[in-house]
Design brief:
Elements lengths: L7 H7 L11 E5 L5 E4 L2 E5 L7 E5 L6 H18 L17 H23 L1 H15 L2 H7 L4 H18 L1
């Protein structure tokens, strides 16, 4: 297409999903026609002026995208200025270390998650043993045993013995 009528930002939006199956992490647009750049609130005019304006379109999903794109821009500029296509510019990007507050927040959330994953399974253990006593109360079999002459202490000792045996088996 004709460079004077080519709109980079519109093209990037239109081709965002059709980039050969690869994720696009950004693009540079130098002196896009008709683009007015404002610096500190004052208009500097259109890109047809003698100044060179570069617009960087960055995919913000990764912290490394801005330095990589800026590296490509600098490398292209140096290659053009020096007339050497073999010049390479290296860039590295690393996340800043966590502050004490961020580390404390992450540690707090980790503690809560660990507590939930440990405590919730422990609720199933007593419910297994209590289930028999509740069922006996619900079906009135406990009352029937007491009416039939089973001693109160014998009933509860039998329950304790049964629960202990079940616990030892599992």
């Amino acid at each position: 297409s004709n460079v004077s009528t080519f709109n980079t930002s519109v093209d990037l939006v239109n081709t965002a999903k059709h980039h050969g199956g690869f994720e696009r992490y950004g693009a540079d647009s130098c002196n896009e026609p008709g683009r007015i750049v404002s610096v500190n609130g004052s208009s500097t005019g259109s890109s047809s002026s003698s100044s060179t304006f570069t617009t960087m379109f960055i995919n913000g999903s990764g912290y490394q995208h801005a330095p990589l794109l800026l590296n490509q821009l600098y490398a292209a500029s140096i290659r053009k200025i020096r007339g050497n296509a073999n010049i390479q510019v290296a860039v590295s990007a690393e996340a800043m270390p966590l502050t004490k507050r961020q580390a404390a927040i992450i540690e707090g959330f980790s503690g809560i998650i660990v507590t939930i994953f440990i405590l919730i399974p422990f609720t199933f253990i007593p419910s297994t043993y209590v289930g028999y006593a509740v069922k006996e109360k619900e079906t009135k079999s406990k009352h029937l045993q007491f009416v039939s002459g089973v001693h109160f202490l014998a009933y509860w000792l039998a329950n304790l013995f049964f629960d202990t045996v079940c616990f030892l088996v599992t």
